[in-house]
Write a structure and sequence with these properties.
The protein has eight helices and four strands, in the order E-E-H-H-H-H-H-E-H-H-H-E. It is mainly alpha-helical. The protein folds into two domains: about 60 residues, no CATH class; about 100 residues, Cytochrome Bc1 Complex, Chain D, domain 2 (Orthogonal Bundle), CATH 1.10.760.10. It has a two-stranded antiparallel sheet with strand order 1-2. Strands 3-4 form a two-stranded antiparallel sheet. The longest helix has 23 residues. The chain starts with 6 loop residues before the first strand and ends with a strand.
């Protein structure tokens, strides 16, 4: 302790001692002031970054646009997507993210059926594959992925499954009706 006496003020019989604020409190105060000034400069004055509100609104708008109904799928559209390398790259990411757990990394079948052979439980035509992914078959363990993935990603997954349909990879034994 120091021998320094605090300055004392008396006003209306109230004694007020003027103690120095702790250093941690002063660092917090000045740090908040500097942060506030920097925030104001970056977001409002120089507009180097969009404000968090504007960034949120842009993200919400993009999400809403992605959920708008797109063109209904057709067999020709899905077959064309299955042959387009750029679409297949995106489609494989969707397949790897959602379908691998049941159908294996190459569609050879694990819990779910082999997607690379000629046998299909619910049809192997493009629109039948799309419907299987979108609506699912809960009685057979296939969830409806349409609500979770959205129409565009279901189209990509269907195109990918259609593209691996004839590869005949070794895997789970054939299930369903043979289609050629």
């Amino acid at each position: 302790m120091s021998d320094e006496k605090p300055i004392v003020h008396v006003y209306d019989d109230i004694v007020e001692e003027d103690n120095q604020l702790p250093n941690w409190w002063l660092f917090t105060l000045f740090g908040a002031i500097i942060f506030g000034f920097g925030y104001w400069m970056v977001y409002h004055s120089a507009k180097l970054l969009p404000t968090p509100r504007i960034a949120y609104l842009e993200e919400a708008e993009a999400e809403a646009a992605a959920r708008l109904p797109s063109a209904p799928p057709s067999a020709a559209m899905l077959a064309a997507m299955a042959k387009d390398p750029s679409q297949l790259q995106l489609a494989e990411k969707v397949f790897q993210g959602q379908c691998v757990a049941c159908h294996g990394p190459h569609g050879e079948g694990l819990v779910g059926p082999n997607l690379t052979d000629h046998y299909w439980l619910h049809g192997g035509k493009p629109l039948e594959i799309y419907r299987s992914i979108s609506k699912g078959y809960l009685d057979k363990g296939m969830p409806a992925w349409g609500p979770q993935l959205g129409d565009e990603r279901v189209k990509l997954a269907a195109a990918y499954v259609f593209s691996i349909k004839e590869k005949n990879l070794a895997g789970k034994a054939p299930q369903g009706i043979e289609e050629k």
